[in-house]
């Protein structure tokens, strides 16, 4: 049986986790990540990925792959083009945020 102290600790920690999740989602990084997720889900709901993969050329044939991607992008609906462009922009911004937060590791030395 769980003691009342353990129940209280679990309740407090659950609240801490909820507050941390809300702060993360409310941060600029969290909002960009959420928008990127919505962009991916929107694209997946509008595009038949299995058909795209079935029609795609080999990955190592770069000129044909470039032509295929260009034709597929230009031949799709405007809403899909907008969602894909927003997704690419968000991916760029998230990558920039991640790289700007990383710092070189400092090794402690003995003197």
Helices and strands in order:
Elements: H1 4-26, H2 28-46, H3 49-55, H4 62-74, H5 78-101
What are the salient characteristics of this protein?
mainly alpha, 0% strand
What is the domain total for the residues? Answer: 1
Mean pLDDT: 86
| Order of secondary-structure elements | HHHHH
Structural class: mainly alpha
Shape: elongated
Roughly how many Å apart are the termini? 53 Å
Radius of gyration: 22 Å
| Main β-sheet description | none
Low-confidence stretches: none
Strand content bin: under 5%
Query: What's the number of extended β-strand segments?
Result: 0
Count, helices: 5
Helix content bin: over 70%
Can you describe this structure in just a few lines?
The protein is 77% helix and 0% strand. The protein is built from 5 helices and no strands. The radius of gyration is 22 Å and the shape is elongated.
3D structure, described in words:
This protein has helices spanning 4-26, 28-46, 49-55, 62-74, 78-101. The radius of gyration is 22 Å and the shape is elongated. The mean pLDDT is 86. It is 77% helix and 0% strand. By secondary structure, the chain is mostly helical.
């Amino acid at each position: 049986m769980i003691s009342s102290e353990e129940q209280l600790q679990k309740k407090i920690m659950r609240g801490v986790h909820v507050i941390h999740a809300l702060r993360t989602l409310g941060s600029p990084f969290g909002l960009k990540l959420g928008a990127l997720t919505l962009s991916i889900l929107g694209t997946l709901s509008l595009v038949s990925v299995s058909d795209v993969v079935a029609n795609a050329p080999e990955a190592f044939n770069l000129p044909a792959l470039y032509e295929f991607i260009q034709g597929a992008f230009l031949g799709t609906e405007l809403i899909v083009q907008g969602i894909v462009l927003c997704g690419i922009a968000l991916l760029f911004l998230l990558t920039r945020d991640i790289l700007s937060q990383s710092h070189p590791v400092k090794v402690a030395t003995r003197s």
